[in-house]
Fold this protein.
Amino acid sequence: MKGIAMTVQAYILIQTEVGKASSVAHAVSAIPGVTLAEGVTGPYDVIMRAEAPSMEDFGRVILSKVQAVAGITRTLTCPVTTY
């Protein structure tokens, strides 16, 4: 859509190695584009929210850095749909 700035936003649910949730939350919160990173209980250990100007930037700038954080065993990316 011409004239409308689009932003890709997503929640990323993260499973970590035992005892690593706090250090993972701290590490991902330092990644540019991450707007929230908190430890949670349940099947995932950390939930984070991030945004980028495009899907390409989201993958290259955010997801690649999240996947490089030590202690992460699995992630699930949930894009946000806005209306």
